[in-house]
Amino acid sequence: MELQQNVHLLWFIGLYAVLMIGIGTYLSKKVSSSSDFVLAGRSLGPFVLMGTLLATWTGSGSISGGETSVAYSFGLIPSLMLVVPTLIGIGILYIVAPKIREFGKYTVSGILEAKYGSSARNLSSFIIILAYVGIVSYQMKGFGFILNLTTGMSVGLGTAIGAALIIFLAMIGGLRSVAQTDAISGFLMVGGLLITVPTIFIIAGGWEEIVQNVPASHMTTTGDLTTIQLIGYLLPSLFLLLGDQNMYQRLASSTGDRASRKGQIGWLLAMLIISPAISLISFASRSLFPSIDPGMALMATTTIMPIAIGGILLAAAASFIITTGNSYLLSAATNLTYDLYLKYVNPEASDKLQLKVTKVSIVLLGALAFIIISYFPSVLSVQMYAYTVYGAGITPAVLAVFFWKRVNAAGGISSMIAGVASTLIWEVVLQKPFDLNSVVIAVPVAILVLIIVTLATTNKNRSSNQLLA
């Protein structure tokens, strides 16, 4: 089947954009302080918390990369497996959420500083900004895919429009407005996918017809991937989620531990619907459109469904892309403001000035994200890179704060450096040997360095103390 643009679908995107801008503008009037802007005044109840966790986590990484690209390029079973790391990650966050709230920090860097010192704060801020700008960049490109699909507009111009929308919504009301629009987007996506799965299977001729039209390897356990390559796609999302500053900020923004627990349970249940649904739709898309960009697999199906169903799905996809983009952009901007500007430039800045600096940081980082996306060949490639930079550079050190009392500054900081360095060497210098994502190298290196350096320096300190005694 040949892919054709359907300009009528643009109405659904337009209505969604107008709704989000209206809500964001209205809620921005309730922002009275930097705490309101960054942590929504710690006012998120379980319903809104569930929606914002869901929408923040499931963005272009799933809609254009992740489940979508893997199902289209490699097979259904590998794509279905991608939900497992997310479920594990949500379970672990459920355990540590009360500890996250106890720290009461705006950023993960603040948590790391409390355990490892100011050097850890500086290094982690750099890593978080580096990774999050990458994540924001492929949300922009995902929106470009949508406009290309509906109007025939170039992906580049569509990406620019997506960048403007993401930057505006992040800047206007911060988490106070982002959380609310996230919640709306999350429930829109669940409804859209539930309607779409049976519809697209009927259009595609049923299960047997779909299976006949895809490569035979796409029905095997690992698809066209080796086992180690499949692991390379599974681990990045797990290690990003476990240390994700975005999730930590949202959990810290809840009204209390009870709301946090309910929100996370709802998030987990929603992921059991969303992730498999995306996989099934994209797998059917491979049968219908065998030669399109893998990143467009899910969105392409909107052009052949009844206009109402296709429009709802496309609006839902756009909503997840936009909400994920403005969430990660806002989070990265808080690092620039609270970990760098307030620490080294103007420690005495007023609350009003802090808010202004955060908004300016959103614009600057958004512009950088727009520039960066042109250097990556696909959404999936930048997704794996950004996830690994964060997952290897931040997560082992953060989890050690909660689960290993013995960990020290030398171990934590060394782990962060090792995680980022091994990622960059594998991806940039060595150009990804054996077509393996760097996570299979970088995360084990970061964990080993954390353990070895902590034990070595702890024993050394003990020996020194014994000699002095």
Automatic annotation (TrEMBL):
One Gene Ontology cellular component annotation held by this UniProt entry: plasma membrane
Gene3D superfamilies on file: Sodium/glucose cotransporter
Keyword Cytoplasm applies: no
Major subcellular location class: membrane
Membrane topology annotation: Multi-pass membrane protein
GO molecular function, one term: transmembrane transporter activity
Subcellular location: Membrane
NADP is among the record's keywords: no
UniProt keyword annotations, A-Z: Membrane, Transmembrane, Transmembrane helix, Transport
Residues annotated as transmembrane: 6-27, 39-58, 70-96, 123-140, 152-175, 187-207, 227-244, 265-284, 296-322, 360-378, 384-404, 411-430, 436-456
Database matches in PANTHER family: SODIUM-SOLUTE SYMPORTER-RELATED, SODIUM/PROLINE SYMPORTER-RELATED
Family: Belongs to the sodium:solute symporter (SSF) (TC 2.A.21) family.
Record protein name field: Sodium:proline symporter
